[in-house]
Amino acid sequence: MADQLYARMEYSKCVHMYTELSTKCLENKKKADWENVRKAAISNYHLFNMDKAIYYFTKLQGKNLLTESDRESMIQALRYEEKYGKSNELIRESTSLFPTNSFFTSLNDQKDQFSELFADSAFYRVTISDVNSGRGDFGAAYFGESLVFVSKSRNVGFINPKYGWDDDFYLNILQANYDIDSSLTEPILMKHNFLSRAHDGPVSFSPDGSQMAITKNEMGKKHGKDVVVLALYFSNLSNGGWTDLVPFEFNNSDYNMGHAVYSPDGTKLYFVSDKPGGFGEADIYMSTRLGSGWSEPKNLGGNINTTRDEMFPFVEDDRLYFSSNGHYGLGGMDIFETAVSGQEPCSNIGYPVNTSHDDFGLIFDASGEIGFLSSNRGKSNVDNLYHVKKRVVKIDLIGNVFAQYKELEAVPNQLVYIKDNSTQLMDTLITSSSGEFTHPLKINRTYQIYTKKDEFILLNEVSLSTMKINRDSTFRCELVLKPTTIKIHLRVLEKESRKIIPNATTTISDYQLGWDTTLITNSEGIVTLTVDRNKVFWAHGAKKGFIDADISFNSSNENDKVIDLELALPPIKRGERFKLENIFYDLSKSTLRDESMVSLDRLADFLIKNDLRIELSAHTDSRGSGYYNQRLSQARAQSCVDYLKKKGVKSINMLAKGYGENKLINRCKNGVNCSEEEHQENRRTEVKILEVR
Questions:
Q1: pLDDT in tens, 461-511
Q2: With helix as H, strand as E and coil as C, how does 21-52 read?
């Protein structure tokens, strides 16, 4: 008879039978049936008689008869009774015996975090509610100006059997209104037309209060036997009353579905199920509203669900609160918090919300500061409702955006992005005139803070965490933008008189990219251009009546905002010489390379505009024989002249002349040890004006 009652999970009816059978077993060791001892332990465990459960588990342990499942229950019972030392010993032993059991390994790995669960004890204030019956009250939900919960305190008024698990009344739905002083009135049975002889509730309500989700019993099958399973139903509020129940389309007689709650916007339903394919015994799932129905349930994943039970979800803002006996806690069911996305580790809320007993069903009102939880803490092991007040922690972010110049320069009216990694939501701010921004942060989040600006790169994206902060706090950060461009101010002057030259043609070139920009100087002889940093450019200036001038410059200046350049153009005079920049030949040959063409094209334009006759000369360094250098320089000068002819310069206006090593401009004669840079000074192409027409 005990085994039959046990199979139906009617523990209150079989526990005394197993106590008697276990006593006989322990007294008569020769004919001992240790399975009766095991069932005595488990029956007491389910009835929260933890001291008795521990007694029988210990007897099994002494005979080395503890199964893997027994060890899980015994560890929970020891922790429930706050016997943490003994539970840790059993955890270590069980981890060694069953290294693949994630429940054992998780407890063993996290046991050093035990003291942290008391660190935030001032963060919540928990007081027992005055609506409790003393028979079992839990599973609170807000509904308008009232609190709705389930209770074992009421018989529904007709012949109603008791629940065999604990020999108490089945659950019924009670409603208590808020009085003028915000206290709760005497609870009454909630009015509805689907009262049953089995468990009704817990319930939750859509954000607008128009729909109820209710957990109820129905008959099902397990291993071919009739069993009672939990199922979800919906009812709509119509003309002041609740309509007939409509089953959740994913109910199944083979497994349980229950504890449903709506998301704050009503588009999602979070609930619990032990359907196959989950992570453990009971997992939390989510469905999205699709018209009048719901999407296929989605498991919230391994960051939330464990090999044991996760139950009683509640969603506030974008945070998920739930109860679990699979994550590390103080014992029994503990309440945890995480992002609804399941993309961050769960955080145990800690004491006093959690105790060594079962703590579950945490909810908050719209303020997020006041709520209720359910717990069987205390000697009676009876579920009661507790009032919870959360101390609001104010967390502020103060930041600045700077541009990196010689001195950091504030960047006003700059967009700043603050990404909440828990929700993937983004807040966008704009800096003040002083480059400052402020923003409130939420507790137990991680954030990424960054900015973007054309022609700048961000040197330091900021990451910060508000996890487990228990006091008002201010975070400060700086976002530093490094400019990728710099402004060029190029002034063109007469070389001798220093007078400005307006309407001069200037060209800024990047030979490596084959890019150039041509600009005309303004009335002050200036052109302005923005160029990339950390590059080498050439600036060229030209004006009729003046000799062209070139200058190279490097834009790698990391501190300044502007590079000031100057091109001094000599007036055209007979006998004036100037060097042609960027004339290159193949090694030991007179063949012009492609990068030489830009300078020669400009020279051709200069000669045609000013109608000049020139000598174009080429020079070598002193290395090699004088004869060889003379021939090479003459051939190179002729290559330049031949190219200029193709560009429209008359042959009569040009004379090609090779000087070899005869006109060195530094000390690097034969026999003198010089650097490559010094030799390069002598390898040059020059223009001498022979006649101005």
A1: 999 999 878 788 999 999 999 999 999 999 999 998 999 999 999 999 887
A2: HHHHHHHCHHHCCHHHHHHHHHHHHHCCCHHH
Question: 419 or 223: whose pLDDT is higher?
Answer: 419
Q: How far is Cα 216 from Cα 256, in angstroms, rounded to an integer?
A: 10
Pull the structure tokens for residue 344: 């961050």
Q: How far apart are CA 51 and CA 62, in angstroms?
A: 17
Considering only CA atoms, which of 287, 134, 260, 254 is closest in space to residue 201?
Answer: 260
Which H or E run contains 679? helix 676-682
What's the predicted TM-score (pTM) here?
0.64
DSSP letter (8 states) at residue 594 = G
Assess contact for 562 and 588: CB atoms under 8 A: no
- How crowded is residue 92: how many other Cβ atoms within 10 Å of its Cβ? 14
CA atoms within 13 A on the CB side of 73: 28
pLDDT in tens, 514-544: 788 999 999 999 999 999 998 899 999 999 8
- What digits encode the pLDDT tens for the residues 137-177? 999 999 999 999 998 866 654 445 555 544 556 778 899 99
DSSP label at 346?
Answer: -
| Contact in structure between 80 and 86 (CB atoms under 8 Å) | no
The answer to whether 43 and 18 have CB atoms below 8 angstroms apart is yes
606 burial level (CB within 10 Å; 0-12, 13-18, 19+): buried
445 conformational bin, left if phi > 0, alpha if psi -120 to 50, beta if neither: beta
Q: Name residue, tokens 């526990």.
A: 15
* DSSP-assigned states of every residue in 55-87: HHHHHHHHTT---HHHHHHHHHHHHHTT-HHHH
Average pLDDT over residues 228-246: 89
- Our CA dihedral for 91, 92, 94, 96, rounded to 10 degrees, sits at 160
Please say if the pLDDT value at position 223 is more than 70. Answer: no
Query: Tokens standing for 45?
Result: 């465990």
What domains does the chain contain, in order, with CATH numbers?
A: 2-118 (1.25.40.10), 124-390 (2.120.10.30), 395-476 (2.60.40.1120), 484-571 (2.60.40.10), 573-693 (3.30.1330.60)
- β-pairing verdict for 515-520 and 505-510: antiparallel
Taking only the tens place, the pLDDT of each residue in 554-584 is 888 767 889 999 999 999 999 989 999 888 8
Q: What span, in angstroms and rounded, lies between the C-alpha atoms of 50 and 42?
A: 10
Place of tokens 């389930």: 150
Strand ranges for 86-210 from DSSP E: 124-128, 137-143, 146-151, 172-177, 188-189, 200-205
Q: 103-140, pLDDT tens digit by residue?
A: 899 889 888 888 888 876 778 899 999 899 888 899 99
* Residue 689, number of CB atoms within 10 A of its CB: 20
Rounded CA gap, 449 and 415, in Å? 11
28-53: burial string, b at 16+ Cβ within 10 Å, e else = eeeebebebbbbbbbbbbbbbbbebb
Residue (of 400, 566, 560, 567) closest to 487 by Cα position: 560
Q: Write the pLDDT tens digit of every residue in 360-406.
A: 999 999 888 899 999 999 888 899 999 999 888 899 999 999 999 88
